[in-house]
Amino acid sequence: MPVQSESVAPLPVRIEAAGAMLNGDLSLPAEAVGLVVFAHGSGSSRHSSRNRAVADALQRGRLGTLMLDLLTEREERVDVITAEFRFDIPLLGERVIAAVDWARMAQPTASLPLGVFGASTGAAAALIAAAERPAAVGAVVSRGGRPDLAGDALERVVAPTLLIVGGRDDVVIQLNRDAYARLRSEKQIEIVPGATHLFEEPGTLDEVSRLAREWFLKRLA
Q1: What is the pTM of this model?
Q2: pLDDT (tens digit per residue) in 43-54
């Protein structure tokens, strides 16, 4: 599939999730073949530079992206001090589900096959959404994620799931292997050599982007 070079201007959106209003950025390339909802990790937001880099790569593959703040502005201010929301996996999962439901109903995205990309704790939220919306979520990718935190939802995921982990992220590699063993869907685990948890080493985030784009395009488009 051809890769486009131009950037896609994001459209600000607001999504209601159980009474909370969440801010998001929707980017739809011309002739988009799918949509990927991003679930950021602990202490991060839709402005995460790493997730933005992956989103840009997906957009060049004609995949739309929905970058979402999983916490409200007030919750983010509290979380900076207390860290009480970033590990509230049921709450985060509920909000990714709300984003999936919104995408299935919103006029610009309703017809697009949908995937979810989760980083860190956001990976658990992505897998919970996949388990709760099996007919809507067509693929899942986790980057340096904590899929183990999805709990019993792991066994209920039917979407093809790719787990990407840094080769120097020893603890998280084992947690991903444990979660991988519990997944019953089509699954794959990729270890990126030389990468630490945040994939800050040269070329490692490019590899994450390539793997994610290929996974989503094969299963959504």
Answers
A1: 0.92
A2: 566 667 788 999
